[in-house]
Amino acid sequence: MFYRPENGHGLPHNPFNAIVTPRPIGWISSRGSDGHDNLAPYSFFNAVAYVPPQVMFASTSAKPDRGDTKDSVAQIRETGVFCVNIVEYAMRDAMNTTSGSWDRDVDEFDLADIEKAACETIDCARVANAPANLECRLTQIVPLEGAANFLVLGEVTGVHMRDDCLVDGMFDVLRFNPLSRMGYRDYTVVREKFSLKRPGE
């Protein structure tokens, strides 16, 4: 099968995000200029650079109470900071609860009964028991082609790692099993790993 996206795919559901899979989930916490906290998952998320460490996530829809975007981007525009909270399998239901299109005044930490902790380098809340948290300062918001598509880039200014996830000085994902997004309503979980040496190593 071949299709041009501009002409449609002709399938019952869009296959695009089932093709680009699995995708890590950036559980983004932000705080508005009014002090209101927000927490929402984004599967268009990844790390993009080592030095300085940088991450990105993309928001691809809008809410009527936020104009051209959603709560996360709107609040990051205001304060210039956000935190990426890593999602473990054990928190899948809480993460899913925060994915709803809730009113801008709803605090998803409270809604999903998630414990907050304060960030160290930025004025933002983080998921207290997440396997890891990346505190970020906004570097740029890039408008993308299409309505309500925004790429958010940030420099990591602080890193939290849960002590039980460190094994012999290495961050071990099998200690918490990262949750990843697939297509449609599907997710997957990392339960095994293997290593490969690069040519010449």
UniProtKB/TrEMBL annotation:
It comes from the Bacteria. Residues 18-173 form the Flavin reductase like domain. SMART domains: Flavin_Reduct. InterPro entries: Flavin_Rdtase-like_dom (IPR002563), Split_barrel_FMN-bd (IPR012349). PANTHER family: BLR2425 PROTEIN, FLAVIN REDUCTASE LIKE DOMAIN-CONTAINING PROTEIN. Pfam families: Flavin_Reduct. The lineage of its organism: Bacteria, Pseudomonadati, Pseudomonadota, Alphaproteobacteria, Rhodobacterales. Signal peptide: none annotated. One of its GO terms (molecular function) is oxidoreductase activity, acting on the CH-NH group of donors, NAD or NADP as acceptor. This is Flavin reductase.
